[in-house]
Amino acid sequence: MQQKREVKTLLAESFKELALEKPVEKITIKEITDRAGVIRVTFYNHFQDKYELLEWICREEVLAPVRILLGNNMQREAVTFIFTAILKNKEFYSHVARTKGQNSFESIVQNLVSETINGYFLSNHVGKSRKYSWLTPKWIADYYAQSLTFVLMGWIERGMTIPPEDMVDMYSFIASHSMMDLPQDI
Q: What is the mean pLDDT of residues 17-45?
């Protein structure tokens, strides 16, 4: 297991270096494996494609710690960690955020955030009745994932100049107010 993780980390580091040099769409598996010093088969033993590798990087660097924070009911700290982790690797995330299309960075992040929030809801709301049958944990997770991803993408595209704590304050403000209340509160 440790060796498998080490290979994944080696491939991730190679990919991250290449992503600073060229768009993700132009990075080849051969370039990733050559830089990592492994053969192509090794890559495919761990990942289906470079987008799955990008997803793994985001899951490991950004969302794995968030699961722990959410498990301890530290929601604000979890959102702060997301912004801070992305800022810590600002150059890399600025480059990969430009990835558009079917395997866009935005859709990868949104899916991972939704998966994380849904897991949190499912583990904390087992057996509780719902006021609205259609308002499932998955639906709520998708809603918050979409809104958080929208805020994250705007922040990344604008150069990440606003401190993570201020972004969390802004996101918390928007998320805690009804659309009907916002015109008088902003």
A: 96
Q: Within 13 Å and on the Cβ side, how many CA atoms surround 67?
A: 15
- Picking from 141, 175, 167, the residue whose alpha carbon sits closest to that of residue 87 is 167
Q: Which residues of 3-33 are buried (b: 16+ CB within 10 A; e: fewer)?
A: eeeebbebbbebbbebbeeeebeebebebbb
Q: Left if phi > 0, otherwise alpha if psi is -120 to 50, otherwise beta: which for 133?
A: alpha
- Give the per-residue pLDDT at 2: 59
Backbone angles phi, psi at 59, to 5 degrees: -65, -45
User: Distance (Å, rounded) from C-alpha 65 to C-alpha 75?
Assistant: 12
Which amino acid does the sequence have at 23? P
Q: Are 86 and 156 in contact (CB under 8 A)?
A: yes
Task: Quote the pLDDT of residue 11.
Answer: 98
Cα–Cα distance, 136 to 115 (Å, whole number): 13
- How far is residue 19's CA from residue 25's CA, in Å, rounded to a whole number? 9
DSSP 22-35: S-GGG--HHHHHHH
Q: Where does the pLDDT of residue 124 fall: very low under 50, low under 70, confident under 90, or very high at 90 and above?
A: confident
Query: pLDDT value at position 143?
Result: 94
Contact between residue 83 and residue 167 where contact means Cβ atoms under 8 Å apart? yes
**Which 8-state DSSP code applies to residue 104?**
-
